[in-house]
Task: inverse folding
């Protein structure tokens, strides 16, 4: 792993040096990154025929039922409890109507969404730090093993990730105008419909807008059509107009989609999480170190009514929070599993494969492939973290006005890490902040260039 990380560490500056020496146009760099990311992902899904298991299998089967017009699955305990999954089920069913009910089309679209996320990260870093840092960000996101291997898994993470980072880009890299805030709110709302992480993104954006975003003079606007003029300049300086417009767009889009599902007869209630306390019950389990607990689910499932289940979950959470002497150890273990340990997310791709498919890429066994991907992922992730930690420190010390948008990504990452100290964790949840980490890492690359007297032109 050390030598792989060292090779990757040296490879990135070499690529950037050659790109600048040959004066490759920026649009070609972006297109090349997209095609490179797409190619390695396509190669993966065709060499590792992953089949859906667990929740992914439930979502796939529900999508096929949707295509047939059978909506009985909506009344099952799973979808009754977590109806927010219907958004992604609808999306998968749409792909099935167009391309058939096999796995291939969904996996190919996963590859496209993941590659577009690479391009979004590239454009973000380019806007914040310049083209050299953008290239480094694109290479890291494109090469991250988890983001590659999960494309063969029928998960809602890929499309949600793309939408969230488009929304973050609009906030961090465009002017503080009402139109942009409305667009960002709408995009993030659609991302939340695919995967309900919008609350963390919302919190990050609101904090950024109120305390870090550049003030924008909106000027005189007619707020009402009754002949009265209202000066909004002073109000705009408080940034509340932008925040309100952003939140309003988010709420309106979410409301419209929910009404659409109800009006279509698919469901009789808004999409949502009927049992949000479960994530805290599992996340505060000292025995499983905050990971899924079969014992806990059996305990709360023995209750007679939903109200009894909620009361029991509240009691369990209260009891575990009162054991304050155990909390620091729990937080340490959860942090290690989520952000330090090898990312065993590759298990979702390598092990549940088609029956009889036991060798890959010209003869690699499952065990060998699993080991290779684990260590390769650790190598890329480690290099990204080295740059990201340096980049974050430099942004706090020497960040200029043009780089202020990077603060949004740091806030988002910190809120996401903080939330997972209390709620259930899985290594695959790390995916959500990887592009943000690599964007911050590009600032570290800029520092390396400056230290080496390379600067923006990278003349060695």
Result:
């Amino acid at each position: 792993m050390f030598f792989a990380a060292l090779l990757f560490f040296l490879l990135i500056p070499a690529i950037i040096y050659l790109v600048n020496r040959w004066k490759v146009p920026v649009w070609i760099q972006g297109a090349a990154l997209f095609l490179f990311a797409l190619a390695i992902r396509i190669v993966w899904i065709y060499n590792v025929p992953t089949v859906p298991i667990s929740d992914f299998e439930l979502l796939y089967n529900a999508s096929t039922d949707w295509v047939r017009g059978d909506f009985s699955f909506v009344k099952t305990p799973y979808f009754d409890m977590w109806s927010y999954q219907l958004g992604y089920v609808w999306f998968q069913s749409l792909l099935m109507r167009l391309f058939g009910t096999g796995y291939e089309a969904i996996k190919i679209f996963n590859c496209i969404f993941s590659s577009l996320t690479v391009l979004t990260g590239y454009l973000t870093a380019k806007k914040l730090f310049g083209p050299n840092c953008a290239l480094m960000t694109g290479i890291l996101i494109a090469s991250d093993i988890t983001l590659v291997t999960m494309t063969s898994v029928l998960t809602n993470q890929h499309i949600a990730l793309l939408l969230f980072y488009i929304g973050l880009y609009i906030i961090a890299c465009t002017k503080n105008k009402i139109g942009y805030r409305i667009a960002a709110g709408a995009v993030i709302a659609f991302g939340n419909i695919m995967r309900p992480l919008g609350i963390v993104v919302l919190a990050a954006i609101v904090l950024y807008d109120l305390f870090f975003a550049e003030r924008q003079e909106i000027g005189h606007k007619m707020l009402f059509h009754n002949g009265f003029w209202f000066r909004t300049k002073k109000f705009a300086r408080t940034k509340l107009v932008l925040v309100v417009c952003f939140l309003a767009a988010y709420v309106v889009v979410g409301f419209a989609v929910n009404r659409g599902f109800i009006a279509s007869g698919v469901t009789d209630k808004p999409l949502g999480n009927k049992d949000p306390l479960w994530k805290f019950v599992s996340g505060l389990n000292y025995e499983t170190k905050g990971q899924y607990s079969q014992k806990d689910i059996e305990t709360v499932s023995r209750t007679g009514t939903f109200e009894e289940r909620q009361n029991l979950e509240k009691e369990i959470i209260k009891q575990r929070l009162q054991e304050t002497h155990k909390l620091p150890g729990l937080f340490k273990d959860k942090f290690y599993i989520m952000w330090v340990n090898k990312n065993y997310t590759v298990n979702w791709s390598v092990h549940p494969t088609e029956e009889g498919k036991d060798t890959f890429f010209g003869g690699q066994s499952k065990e060998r492939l699993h080991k290779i991907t684990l260590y390769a992922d650790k190598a890329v992730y480690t290099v990204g973290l080295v740059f990201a930690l340096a980049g974050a420190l430099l942004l706090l010390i020497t960040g200029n006005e043009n780089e202020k948008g990077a603060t949004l990504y740091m806030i988002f990452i910190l809120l996401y890490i903080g939330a997972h100290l209390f709620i259930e964790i899985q290594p695959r949840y790390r995916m959500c902040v990887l592009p943000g980490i690599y964007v911050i890492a590009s600032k570290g690359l800029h520092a390396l260039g400056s230290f080496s007297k390379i600067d923006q032109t990278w003349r060695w």
